[in-house]
Design brief:
The complex is a heterodimer.
Chain A (H helix, E strand, L loop, with lengths): L1 E7 L3 E8 L2 E9 L4 H16 L6 E8 L1 H7 L7 E8 L13 H7 E8 L14 H14 L3 E6 L7 H13 L4 E4 L8 H31 L6 E4 L4 E4 H6 L7 H14 L4 E6 L4 E7 L2 E2 L6 E3 L2 E3 L7 E3 L5 E3 L7 E5 L4 H4 L10 H7 L16 H22 L6 E6 L13 E6 L6 H7 L2 E11 L3 H18 L8 E9 L7 E10 L3
Parallel strand pairs in A: 1-4, 4-9, 5-6, 5-7, 7-8, 10-21, 11-19, 19-20
Antiparallel strand pairs in A: 1-2, 2-3, 9-10, 11-12, 12-13, 12-16, 14-15, 17-18, 21-23, 22-23
Helix pairs in contact in A: 1-6, 2-6, 4-5, 8-12, 10-11
Chain B lengths: L5 E2 L2 H14 L8 H12 L5 E3 L9 E9 L1 H7 L3 H15 L5 E4 L7 H11 L3 E2 L1 E2 L12 H4 L7 E4 L5 E4 L5 H14 L3 E5 L3 E2 H7 L1 E2 L1 H17 L4 H9 L2 E16 L2 E10 L7 E7 L1 E7 L2 E5 L3 E6 L16 E7 L8 H7 L20
Parallel strand pairs in B: 2-5, 3-4, 4-5
Antiparallel strand pairs in B: 1-2, 3-9, 3-10, 6-11, 7-8, 7-9, 12-13, 12-18, 13-14, 14-15, 15-16, 17-18
The chains are: A alpha/beta, B alpha+beta.
Chain lengths: 511, 365
């Protein structure tokens, strides 16, 4: 099957075409103000240069920073209402409580706490108050707010009250777009509610963005199914992505790490992705990014996502160097204006790229423009940049034994050929489009995190696996290719009988 | 000479949360929600004063409050402060007498905040002491039990305001059994006001200045992070602690038994501990750390599992495969390491046929 992976970044839109698991062609174009026009143009170039017709393409995978940028930059977000079903529990910390004030000002609509929800052992906290939900739905309609998040206590254990609330909303306010928290996963009311509110706030924008992606594909003559990449390095169908945009928050770094794994053939390695402004160091374990330990904040909001563990330092191809002091490098960067600002391109600024060209690490622009740089300065500045990368790599290492380091990204020439604790610096073809490649090779996943009662451990785990598999198939996976990649069970304290919380994740190939 | 009373600031609350989570030794629950609520009270103009236990008159009447139950239940039901605060007037009504102050039951984890929230809501001063000096899973693992102070009465309330008063119990073990059974019925969480204490009993029978202890640990972590220094090294240096092991979690085995979360974390060594491994057994909290088949540290010494990079504490319900962790030991309050103390909180109280040998030689039993 021919697949296309696209990475829409702030600076570049990259696209790669793969066939039978090998890269056939890749293109890199500057992201334009008209993002969709840029995608159409990129796709057109990719198909023309690789002599493939649009109808021969089997699937298109897009990785995008649209959704996370919307939250970080507080734009394109819908005013959102919240209904929490938990009273008399969880009264004192209302929805939006731990959000940054500026984001709350943009997103927070009316919020309602109603009686209901479940205890950890499955008994109701209180009878579900349908009348209160109906009153809330009418108030939300009167307010004109369409985006609504519904969060019930222990809904991952029993979702029926969230479903009832969504049905009442549909009756009373047919234009409401409702996110039900149990669809987004984990135990932890406040963080799950935060994610649900963010998801609802992103709804209209996600629907619009995915529709525009579809139009772009149609514009390039491609009728193949569209998938969007997610935080965990897998993809979902475009419809799923439009319904759950929060799951695509961290797909950029994830795709880059997955692409590096594919290009290098290594499934255990460190990866450094040198961009225009930063270098991001991550770690591959079994071909997937190692996840961060900590609670992950997106735009200042606490979520329950697992995101790749990354260390970012202020060193990229566009990073400014102080001509008077070779040890003063960054963190300010000329970013995407490299081709206007850097000396090798006739600009006034001395950048990391200029120093690299002067040192003969890369051929870019006009080398004569940096011929006047003092050789001692160049040596010292290169040594400083190498030390910065070496330090970041060392901090991300979790094994004392030397590990390979895969260097990717447009500024990979800044990575030295030898570093302490690194067995080998691996340079790969197509390293500049690792992100798009990570998207192109992505598989489909399904996950559950649920509490099972009065089931033997084996049966509970088998049931969790079935549910995860059903989710994966619904998300577009080929049922025959599903593999279990994660299974974790936690017996619950303080409960009679057998209560087991099971988390299972499966991945499979795109059907 | 008792220390001066002081008011808790928002920054103090944050530092206390950081320190208390470390002193939780894996249990007691993440203090995040209660920290958020306490900040709301401050923002609404409420204040809370911390007083030195040594300044209490002998006949002062001190309430002692704490939450019981599974941290997991609180992740969904949260932990509203007015529920814990309601246990205090209920006890006053039963006693026919007003409290002069409220003390912490358990400084580790989320429970220290229950006294602070009660203080904020009811306007009671908070006494700088607790009955564990860390976190423990059972009511009979307290300094009050060690000192043979009465275990009753208790008041106990759930989120629906279902409530009970336990007017009498033969001993702390029976109180523990009865209340745990009710806690399960309440949905695995309950707010309690434990047996009231006089000022004299507090001075004689509690771990003194443990609120300040948590506060100072939190301040150490904050200062180290601000200076981009290693927060774990800073805590160990400031508290006379010991780094036991550095590594990566390679296995977590958990099982629920008799209402507790028991299990074992296995860590493979990194850096100086490369090639070795450490296993830590837990019953809600970490109880015994093993290097091979030899105990490296046991209760009541504090065994704390921290994120190697951030220095943040990691709980027994949240520790998971792949985390890079540092195991440290902190010295236990002296009352816990006395022969009577060890009967209640030594390794044998947790079912291990081991003598207590402190990793801090001067304190060895």
């Amino acid at each position: 099957m021919i697949r296309i992976g696209i990475d829409v970044g702030g600076t570049n839109t990259d696209a790669v075409l793969i066939e039978a698991g090998a890269v056939r062609h890749a293109v890199k174009t500057a992201t334009t103000a008209d993002v969709m026009g840029g995608i159409v143009a990129t796709l057109g170039r990719l198909l023309a240069e690789s002599a493939v017709e649009g109808r021969a393409v089997g699937a298109v995978m897009i990785g995008t920073t649209h959704f996370t940028n919307a939250v970080v930059q507080r734009r394109g977000l819908a005013r959102t209402a919240g209904i929490r079903i938990s009273l008399p529990a969880a009264r004192t910390l209302p929805p939006f409580i731990d959000w940054p004030a500026d984001l709350r000002a943009v997103v927070a609509g009316p919020t309602f706490l109603v009686r209901g929800g479940y205890e950890v052992d499955g008994q109701p906290i209180a009878p579900f108050d349908a009348d209160a939900v109906r009153a809330a739905a009418r108030a939300i309609r009167a307010d004109g707010t369409r985006a609504v998040a519904v969060t019930g206590a222990f809904s991952p254990l029993n979702a029926d009250q969230e479903e009832k609330a969504a049905a009442i909303l549909a009756e009373e306010w047919p234009e409401a777009q409702v996110t039900r928290s149990h669809e987004l996963g984990r135990i932890g009311l406040l963080a799950r509610e935060n994610v649900s509110l963010l998801n609802a706030a992103l709804g209209p924008m996600a629907t619009h963005t995915v529709a525009a992606f579809r139009d772009a594909l149609a514009g390039a003559g491609i009728a193949a199914p569209l998938f969007i990449t997610q935080n965990d390095g897998t993809v979902v169908t475009a419809d799923e992505a439009a319904a759950y945009p929060v799951r695509s928050f961290a797909s950029g770094p994830t795709n880059s790490l997955r692409g590096a794994a594919f290009l290098s053939g290594l499934d255990r390695a460190l990866v450094v992705d040198v961009g225009g402004t930063t270098s991001d160091v991550g770690s591959l374990v079994a071909g997937f990014p190692r996840e961060a330990n900590n609670v992950v904040e997106v735009g200042g909001v606490r979520t329950l996502f697992r995101m790749p563990d990354l260390l970012s330092i202020g060193l990229g191809g566009g990073t400014l160097c102080d001509p008077a002091d070779p040890n003063r490098i960054g963190p300010v960067s000329v970013g995407f204006r490299l081709t206007e600002r850097a000396r090798v391109f006739g600009g006034p600024d001395l950048t990391a790229t200029d120093v690299a060209v002067a040192a003969g690490l890369v051929e870019l622009g006009d080398r004569d423009k940096v011929a006047g740089l003092d050789a001692g300065y160049v040596r010292a500045a290169v040594a400083r940049m190498h030390a910065m990368i070496a330090d970041a790599v060392d901090r991300m290492k979790s094994d004392a034994e030397p590990v390979p380091l895969v260097a990717v990204g447009g500024g990979a020439f800044l990575v030295p050929d030898a570093l302490p604790g690194v067995s080998e610096v691996v340079r790969v073809p197509h390293q500049g489009v690792a992100n798009a490649l990570g998207a192109a090779i992505a598989q489909v996943s399904g996950e559950v995190d649920q509490i099972f009662r009065d089931l033997p451990r084996e049966q509970a785990m088998a049931r969790a696996r079935e549910l995860a598999e059903a989710r994966a198939v619904r998300a577009g996976a080929d049922a025959g290719s599903l593999k279990l990649v994660e299974m974790e069970d936690i017996p619950l304290a303080y409960l009679p009988g057998n209560s087991l919380r099971v988390r299972a994740r499966v991945v499979g190939d795109v059907a | 000479m008792p220390g001066a009373a002081f008011q808790l600031t928002e920054r103090d609350l944050e530092d206390f949360a950081t320190g208390a989570w470390i002193l939780g030794t894996g249990g007691g629950g993440d203090p995040y929600f209660s920290l958020l609520e306490a900040k709301q009270h401050l923002a609404a103009g409420r204040t809370v004063t911390v007083v030195d236990p040594l300044s209490l008159p002998d006949d002062a009447l001190v309430a002692c409050v704490g939450q019981m139950g599974a941290p997991l239940a609180k992740q969904e039901k949260l932990c509203d402060g007015d529920v814990i605060a309601s246990t205090i007037p209920m006890m006053e009504k039963h006693l026919g007498r007003k409290f002069d102050a409220v003390m912490l039951w358990e400084v580790g984890g989320n429970n220290g905040f229950q006294a602070i929230l009660s203080g904020l809501i009811l306007g009671l001063p908070v006494v700088d002491c607790d009955a564990m000096g860390r976190a423990f899973p059972q009511a009979d693992m307290t300094t009050f039990a060690i000192c043979d102070l009465p275990a009753y009465p208790w008041t106990m309330v759930d989120i629906r305001r279902n409530s009970l008063i336990f007017t009498e119990a033969e001993n702390w073990t029976w109180m523990e059994k009865m209340t745990r059974r009710v806690c399960t019925v309440f949905g695995a969480s309950a707010a309690t006001c434990k047996a009231p204490r006089t000022g004299e009993e507090v001075k004689r029978g509690s771990c003194l200045h443990t609120l300040s202890w948590a506060l100072s640990i939190g301040r150490t972590v904050r200062a180290a992070r601000a200076a981009h220094a290693d927060p774990i090294a800073a805590v160990v240096a400031a508290e006379g602690g010991l780094v036991l092991f550095r590594g990566k979690v390679t296995d977590v085995m958990r099982r629920a038994t008799d209402g507790w979360l028991r299990g074992r974390v296995t860590i493979e060594g990194l850096d100086g501990d490369q090639g070795e491994s450490m296993a830590i057994d837990f019953q809600n909290e970490f109880s015994v750390a093993w290097r091979g088949d030899k105990p490296a540290a046991t209760v009541p010494d504090l065994i704390c599992l921290l994120d190697s990079a951030s220095g943040e504490a990691i709980g027994t319900e949240t520790v998971r495969y792949g985390q890079r962790v540092t195991v440290i030991a902190l010295p236990a309050p002296a009352i816990l390491t006395t022969p009577k103390g060890l009967q209640h909180v030594g390794p044998r109280a947790f079912g291990f046929d081991l003598d207590f040998h402190s990793v801090f030689p001067a304190r060895s039993a």
